[in-house]
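User: Could you write out the 3D structure of this protein bound to adenosine-5'-diphosphate? I've included everything you need below.
Assistant: Certainly. Input first, then the structure.
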Amino acid sequence: SVDRLPEIQDSRLRLPVLAEEQVIMEAVRENSFVVLCGETGSGKTTQVPQFLYEAGYASGTGIIGVTEPRRVAAVSMSHRVAKEMNLVVSYQIRYEGNVTSDTKIKFMTDGVLLKEIQKDFLLQRYSVIIIDEAHERSVYTDILIGLLSRIVPLRNKKGLPMKLIVMSATLRVEDFTENRKLFPTPPPVIKVEARQFPVSVHFNKRTPLEDYTGEAEVHSVCRRLRRAFPFRRGNTATDYSDEMKKFKKAKHKRTVSLPRIDLDNYSALPVDEGDEDRLAGIDDEGSDLELGDDAADTEEKADPSLPLYVLPLYSLLAPEQQAKVFQPPPHGTRLCVVATNVAETSLTIPGIKYVVDCGRVKKRFYDRVTGVSSFKVSWTSQASANQRAGRSGRTEPGHCYRLYSSAVFGDFSLFSEAEITRRPVEDLVLQMKDLNIDKVVNFPFPTTPSAEALVAAEQLLVSLGALEEPPRTGRSPLQILYLTIPSSRLSCPISPLGRAMASFPVSPRYAKMLALGKQQDCLPYVIAVVAAMTVREIFEDLDRPAGSEDESSKLAQRRARLAQMRRLWAGQGASLLLGDLMVLLGAVGACEFAGCTLKFCEENGLRYKAMLEIRRLRGQLTNAVNSVCPEVGVFVDCKMAPPTESQVVCLRQIVLAGLGDHLARRVQQEELLDPKWRNGYKTPLLDEPVYIHPSSALFKTLPQFVVYQEVLETTKMYMRGVSAVEPEWVP
Ligand code: ADP
Ligand code: MG
């Protein structure tokens, strides 16, 4: 039985989902699959695991597993449920966890469960799996639902019954329930009526294109709000209602005096899990004081009589910082949370009364054919905007201020697209093949990825040697892409190399490099380079606009320092040809040599959080490599010597083997038809030139052939992570 504190019991009883406990548990008892819909905040995530626990679903050998698409939710929900139940509840995310043999309830990211399926297809450790936040339609969530639709009947057949509960914050669940391939008999859908207070929605009359603040980075908004409504201990308003009136007046003034913000002048701050490392550079509360840009901004007048307690909230924020939003703000202050999408549905912050919605979302866009990616700010969907608005009406009637007009809202798409239709799928296809799902096209996806994306993935995996060659059909790959796709092209079985690659927690191109790394004792270098390549933005963004002259000159100094360090890390002669990857290797080596300290990172233009993540990933990759080929006995050497000349040559070939489809050839003088091709590179799939970025180690060298990590379109199409290729290596 569960021993809950009285105040916890009280707040539980107020949650709408509590009223449905009987109905939910009965449905779970009688069905293998159950779909549960309930507004965000109705208590699904915190309560349903408790219902299951109390009904005995963790009393035998099996435990209760809950998946979340976001790390932040997995961690914070496990803590919350532990607190409510007075019981140990565990979590597991990519690098860390606290699972023990006594764990009864386990929160994890969806990626973690997918990895577990590879080890034990029947998931025998679990008696029930809850797939939470299914409305987010994250790629792993979709795949998990497809897999579990097959695993659960298998378990039942084996006499080890298992349940699947899919939870969604929206009622749009037809992709799951009306999909006969997925569930031949539609699962029951239980709806929890949320006790939602009315929310008044206020639209802007016009939709400003230049001066909205919502998409500006979380930290700069935090900084500005703190400046405008400063809070210092001992300087807090006492009369709350009075303060409120003033706040309303001031709020009006504030909207009028908001400075213009250049919409094209943002650094990438996407919101999805795969890219959340980009968010890591955001300052937390204390550190922005030292930026000293107060002087420059005269448009916002500080009003200390309206103290705001401003907190940032985003995925990679340290857990103790995240937890702050759940605690009451200091007396006499108003809590103001500046959040990315995590606050849309994954986390419910208590007591929110006003929501300001910029209506935008920042997403990574991939071109399916060319692989070029770019970050774009676009309008969100109506469903998301309504979710955001709903956050203000949890505890009393609320208000949502939409920084766009009702006409613009009318043009939003109704729902956001499933992620699986928006990104390359080679990593998923490899994982699925490793599960012996050869005919990926036949997989019961809730939403099937495009045929082009599946073909492209399978072709890449064949070219990397991860899949066996398909029988020849006599047509070129491109013809196949645009004509019909013979099913043989989409059912290549996995090769032994592919199995090794699938066991590495990185995408197939990098996994290939790891698999080849044994040669010439290159493994420690390959591991370090791969770790650095898969963690985004290891260098600080020193090109950001400065708030004051002082800051501007400091930034210039640090830019010069970073440029100098980059040259140093790039080395000379032979090592220079490994290009940007040599710079990464040098940076990782130097940082580890110095003990991976904050001081070293700050002095040398490296992002501390990125370097810590690289360190963890190096450890993890080292373990993974050792378990695939124990004979190499590789270890993380924090005093790693630079690679020798012949090792550099070997590393360049390993990189080429992984990035072979990302080959680019410099356009020769005699081919110059159009001036835009000057210093440009030709790639197989693009009609337009791509370029080496001025910050690249190879910007001055301009080798005849290069491979690159990715093409990112900013002002031009720039290759990132460039390394030189000898002409005689080109196939
Ligand atoms: P749902 O999953 O349906 O969106 P949750 O179970 O996440 O709902 O939340 C139910 C309630 O629990 C919410 O009112 C939320 O404010 C509260 N809650 C969740 N986490 C915490 C926490 N760490 N501290 C205090 N309250 C919390
Ligand atoms: Mg939830």
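The radius of gyration is 27 Å.
User: Perfect, thank you.
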